[in-house]
Amino acid sequence: MSILEYNGAAIIGMAGKDCVGIASDNRLGIQYQTVAMDFKKIFKMNDRLFVGLAGLATDVQTLDQLLRFRMDLYELREEREMSPKVFTNLLSNMLYEKRFGPYFCEPIIAGLDGGGSPYLATMDLIGAQAHSRDFVVAGTCEGNLYGMCETLWRPDMDKEVLFETLAQALLASVDRDALSGWGGVVHIITREGVISRELKGRQD
């Protein structure tokens, strides 16, 4: 088993019309043993930017704290919020700095850029970036997530349709993966604000 699969995860970022969504499951496990059902994998960086971290649970929490520290320094120095593009480069550089002893995390960045357009990016554990206009996925059931997203995603979805698409794609995918699941959470980022909703999933 890969160290990236040790705790289990499923994260999706998806673009809509003037909105973007990010969703994750809630399970924390040690391989096939479930430890907790409320483990946070998506972190709010600012009102227009979220990051999802799939991988080793200890590295997920470490990266979250490091990113908050770096963002606070940036905002103090620059006197403005960090844009998703700048944040992606910051995270990519942080991961590449540790490439000989990497953080075992695959991040997904979801946000709205300066013009209010959806921004999606992902990277591997040493910071190689990949950008997308439709959706990005990470976690132990990547294959399932890709299949569901390719089936359900449509261009120019509004925030309610985007939520429904994310919820259905996530729940259908984790049902076929023993390492993720136990409910989920969906965040929809719009110009007006963030809508967050909990999902109930199978508890077995």
Automatic annotation (TrEMBL):
Q: What is its main location?
A: nucleus
What would be one Pfam family of this protein?
Answer: Proteasome
Specify whether Cytoplasm is a keyword of the entry: yes
Q: Would you say which domain of life the source belongs to?
A: Eukaryota
- Give the CC-aspect GO terms: nucleus; proteasome complex
For this UniProt record, the keywords arranged alphabetically read as follows:
Cytoplasm, Nucleus, Proteasome
Protein's name according to its UniProt entry: Proteasome subunit beta
Subcellular localization: Nucleus
